[in-house]
From TrEMBL:
SUPFAM superfamilies: lambda repressor-like DNA-binding domains. Residues 73-104 form the HTH cro/C1-type domain. CDD domains: HTH_XRE. GO terms for molecular function: DNA binding. This is Helix-turn-helix domain-containing protein. PROSITE patterns: HTH_CROC1. Signal peptide: none annotated. It comes from the Bacteria.
Length: 161
């Protein structure tokens, strides 16, 4: 494969890749094929089964027991296929409130946090969601879900959470 920037042949290898494109801060894809240009530093990442991957991330995020971070609120909202306007309407809040949750100006409240999780669990995920987790969510602490995800046998798997 040639570099799209400078035409040099790129070197492909498997790496642990921080999936910042997800908008989340601590999601690592384990053993992903990354092609790097030795001359200019340009790189390309090959991420298979994107839809499954996003479903798995959403699933892991709604099962964590600390408050959702602003990045996670945005990720989950998008995973539902909703615009900010849709989200405001479905949550029963103003669009400004949604913006504040997503840009980190104000933390999402405990009820909205639970409701969003339930909507994600209900809307897109086929497996059962342990609702008892809702009572364990710590409203005082927002730590990002730290995930390591590996593509195994054509399927995404959570290797560490
Ligand atoms: Zn290059």
């Amino acid at each position: 494969m040639k570099c799209t920037e400078c035409g040099t042949t790129m070197k492909t290898q498997r790496e642990n890749y921080r999936y910042d494109e997800s908008g989340l801060k601590k999601v690592t894809l384990v053993g992903i094929e990354v092609s790097r240009c030795p001359r200019c530093g340009n790189y390309e990442v090959s991420i298979p089964h994107m839809e499954d991957l996003h479903r798995l991330i959403a699933r892991a995020v709604i099962e964590k027991t600390t408050r959702l971070t602003s990045e996670e609120v945005r990720f989950l909202r998008k995973s539902l296929g909703w615009s900010g306007v849709d989200f405001a309407r479905n949550m029963g809040v103003t669009e400004e409130t949604v913006s504040r949750w997503e840009n980190g100006a104000v933390p999402i409240g405990p009820q909205a946090d639970r409701l969003l999780r339930l909507m994600v669990a209900q809307g897109r995920l086929t497996t059962t969601y342990p609702t008892e987790r809702l009572s364990q969510i710590n409203p005082k602490k927002a730590t990002p879900a730290r995930l390591q995800i590996e593509a195994r046998d054509d399927q995404w798997e959570l290797v560490a959470a």
